[in-house]
Amino acid sequence: MSVSVFAKHMLAASGAASLMLLSGLGSPAQAQTPATGSGTTALPNIVVEAPRQVAGTPKQRPKPHLAARRAVSPPSAPPAPVSPAAQLAAKSSVFDQARSNIYTTVGTTSATISHQTIQDLPQGDNQSVERVLLQAPGVSQDSAASGLLHVRNDHGNVQFRINGVMLPDGLTGFGSIFDTSFVGTMALVVGALPAEFGLRTVGLVDITTRNDLFNNSGSVSVYGGSHGTITPSVEYGGTFGGNCAATPATTPGYVKAPPAAADCFPGVQYYFTGRYLQTTVGIENPTPAYNAIHDFSQQERGFAYMSAFIDPTTRVSLIAGTANNNFQIPNVPGAPIGQNGFVTNAFGVTSFDSAHLNENQWELTHFGVLSVQTSANGFDGQLSYFTRYNNLHFLPDPVGDLLLNGIASTVTRTSYTNGIQGDGAYQVNSSHTLRAGFTVSGEQVFVGNTSLVEPCMICDGTDNGQPVSITDNVSKLGVLMGVYAQDEWKLTNQFTINTGLRFDQMEQFISANQLSPRFSATYKPFENTTFHAGYARYFTPPVLVEAAPANIALFNNTTGAASAGAANDPVLPERSNYYDVGVDQKIPLGCTSSSPKDCSSLELGVDAYYKTAKDLIDNGVFGQALVLSAFNYANGWNEGIEFHTKFNSGNFQAYGNVAVAQQRASDVVSNQFLFDNTVPLADLGGLTRFQYVQTHFIYTDHNQFVTASAGAIYQFCGRPASFGEMSWCGTKLSADMIYGSGLRSGDANISSVPAYTQVNVGIKREFLLPNDPKPLTIRFDVVNLFDKIYEIREAGGIGVFASQFGPRRGYFVGISKKI
Questions:
Q1: Which ranges carry the TonB-dependent receptor-like beta-barrel domain (predicted)?
Q2: pTM, to two decimals
Q3: Is there a domain that residue 74 lies in?
């Protein structure tokens, strides 16, 4: 073989190899092409043609020519080099996908909402995370004092994760600690969860932070309107510190990540968000009036994210957040004195206008997560340190609370948690992916209660003494530990099962542990049809600060005494069996062009579940301080069925959800003193509330038979309007609604509040100012369009101290500018 022929063969071979390498490692979309059934990756067809020769024509030695004698076409301009920031963004995108591979949701149901959809719905990202979640299947509304929402009729027990790391338990207050501004995507995952998800298992709120703010950009906005509401906010992000050289973009659309042997630092990605909110309806109005009395609130929230690669296979990221919320507790005018505790004289005061009651609550939260992620040779792993600090302080009205409630309690709750979480996934082959991990955390809590009461013997208002102060403080260090292992086995391209074991140990006010098996399966007989089913054994410790024991003996012979002979057993962990089955069907409805955005589709789904529980954990507000206390029912069960649908067609998208469910429980076995056992009630057959609960399966207070939500978004034109343009371009219309058949009410939850529907609408327009490529957005929203007056909670149910009404109609305007 001649040297020239050998050189041509080498050139052709190296060209083919280069094209194959670029195709495999090019854009993130190409890099994440799913594996075929044989375990290989499908690559685009690439044809490399050898230089053409005319048959029979002898090779001629080229003759030299002078350059001046030949016209040479100017070479095409080389593609613009890819900046280090773009290189870093491409590599981060690959690592984001690798992080998602650490976890699996086989056999579960997931409802996902993007940041863009959040922005497009009424009120946009001025809503809290909890309010957005009300649009997910099976999520019912509740008052701020009760946690704002319930998933599948359970109280609390919802796990929040940010970038795969579980945030530890804290305090349940009125204000949200999460701002939707930092959310890239948010998924509510329910069903029989895999073994990697423990402790809080009713629902998993999986938040992935945004990845579109690393180009030195951001926005500032102001939003406000009815009820004295104003909320300015800011967000900004970028990339700094990189010293890698720009890389030529040899293929259109191809962005090269820093090489494996890079001797440069690709830089640091960062962004932050901040928001201030003030309103005269901080928590729900206890009356149906349009304006609440004494309900002013100021809230501040901030969030920050940073990440950097310390080597080609390792990324370090830092997440930090804070929330500082202050609330006035709203008043109910005309409340009589002496009805609770028979106090008719407090510090010489014998009359009191309840509209002037002055109760306040302050809440402070800080949290942080430091993670190290690695991805190499089929292994993806993440090791994280997390911390969370909470402080809640309730300050009563000393005179007013004594006269109205018989007790005035100053409540302080503090929680400080530190822990480590490690998770890893290893793809053994095309069929098996092994996952394992652990979590260990320590939480130091302090529960302080200093109460003003009046001593008495008969306690009927005839022998009360002067007010005295009683202090009942509790401090405890609690430890939670968990370890799991599981195998995701892809038996065929259509059928996948996931089996695992999890062991959890708690050391709190009691010690307990459990080994929990998990099994789930997904079957996809057709491309657009997916069946799932699963079983999970769950172990749920109580929230430590809500399980703190009270020394009720201190209050004997006072106006704050518990029922005579009431027990005070410690709160136990909940143990449950969970069964879930469902099916999802996607129906393509055709396309008007080759662009995916011009295609229409309909998605339908149904999911059914059944849960049996021993020592079912519940919570309630059992005093004038709007803080939660936990207790157990010996037995409980929960069942329901959910229907969900989505429709997409070009610039229009809509969704709808309906859930039918019930939860019932019986026999209180902890913190029994919270239930009255002295007053027989006619509607309970002459039994006290405690006696009735011990002998009947009652509906839990947060049970709601029917819950529904729906929404729609329509976009005109698909581009921002230019300045002064008289068209609908850049305009989006939106609406959403929630429906509830009503939470339980009455003695022992034997009735329910009336059903309600709340409809919200919004319109926003995005347009460009002269000589400014970054758009300005103006929005207008109406909350509770039809001004439906409805009650979320009614005073009198188990663990319900005061009534709470939904928001009255409000008008809100916002302006936002990209920077």
A1: 327-785
A2: 0.85
A3: no
- The separation between CA 475 and the C-alpha centre of its own chain, rounded to angstroms, equals 30
Residue among 346, 610, 597, 586 nearest 454 (CA): 346
> From residue 723, how far is each of 229, 727, 771 by CA, in Å?
29, 11, 10
Tokens of 615: 């020592």
Question: Structural domain of residue 432, as residue ranges?
Answer: 100-332+360-395+407-818
Q: Rounded CA gap, 168 and 386, in Å?
A: 8
| N-term to C-term CA, the chain | 63
Q: Tokens for 119, please give them.
A: 């922005």
The pLDDT tens digits of the residues spanning 733-785 come to 999 999 999 999 998 999 999 999 999 999 999 999 999 999 999 999 999 99
Residue ranges of the chain whose pLDDT lies below 70: 1-82, 246-263, 623-625, 797-801
Residue 592's pLDDT is 82
C-alpha dihedral (389, 573, 485, 167), degrees to nearest 10: -20
In the three-class reduction of DSSP (H, G, I as helix; E, B as strand; rest coil), residue 291 is classed as: coil
* Residue 736: per-residue pLDDT: 98
Instruction: Report the pLDDT value the prediction gives residue 564, as an integer from 0 to 100.
Output: 72
| DSSP letters spanning 643-677 | EEEEEEETTEEEEEEEEEEEEEEEEE-SSGGGS--
CA–CA dist 635, 576 (Å, integer):
10
Q: Could you tell me if residue 41 is inside a domain?
A: no
Torsion sign, CA atoms 322, 324, 329, 330: negative
- β-pairing, 229-240 vs 158-162, is unpaired
Coil, helix or strand for 425? strand
Q: Residues 367-424: pLDDT tens digits?
A: 999 999 999 988 999 999 999 999 999 999 999 999 998 999 999 999 999 999 999 9
Maximum CA extent, the chain: 126
DSSP letter for each residue of 166-177 = EPPP----SS-S
**705 token code pair:** 């038979």
* pLDDT score at 696: 95
Any idea how long the chain is? Answer: 819
Angle at 51 between CA 50 and CA 52, to 5 degrees: 110
What is the spatial distance between Cα 189 and Cα 435, in angstroms, rounded to a whole number?
Answer: 19
Q: CA 422, CA 656: separation in Å to the nearest integer? A: 37
- DSSP label of 22: H
Residue from 178, 114, 172, 181 nearest 143 by CA: 172
**Distance, CA of 436 to CA of 195 (rounded, Å):** 9
Domain count of the chain?
1
* CA nearest neighbour of 800 among 675, 679, 707: 675
Which residues share a beta bridge with 459? none
Rounded CA-CA distance 731/530 in Å is: 36
**Domain annotation covers residue 85:** no
User: In the chain, count of helices (H) and strands (E)?
Assistant: 7, 34
What Å distances lie between residue 172 and 114, 251, 410, 593, 636, CA to CA? 26, 53, 17, 50, 23
- Cα separation of 631 and 543, whole Å? 11
Residue type for position 35:
A
Q: Which amino acid, residue 468?
A: V
CB-based contacts of 259: which residues, under 8 Å, 6+ apart? 312
Query: Residue 88: its pLDDT value, please?
Result: 86
Q: What's the pLDDT score for residue 12? A: 41
Q: Any idea what the Cα angle at residue 46 is, between residues 42 and 47, rounded to 5°?
A: 145
For residues 418 and 479, what is the distance between their CA atoms, to the nearest angstrom? 10
Domain holding 499: CATH number?
2.40.170.20
- Give how far Cα 376 sits from Cα of 98, 163, 311, Å: 10, 19, 12
In a domain, 415, yes or no: yes
Handedness of CA 61, 66, 69, 74 (dihedral sign): positive
Question: For residue 23, what are its two tokens?
Answer: 């195709």
Contacts 24+ apart (CB under 8 A), 693-696: 693/633, 693/666, 693/667, 693/668, 693/748, 693/798, 694/666, 694/667, 694/668, 695/666, 696/666, 696/748
**C-alpha dist (Å) from residue 108 to 304, 305, 498, 536, 817:** 31, 29, 11, 11, 39
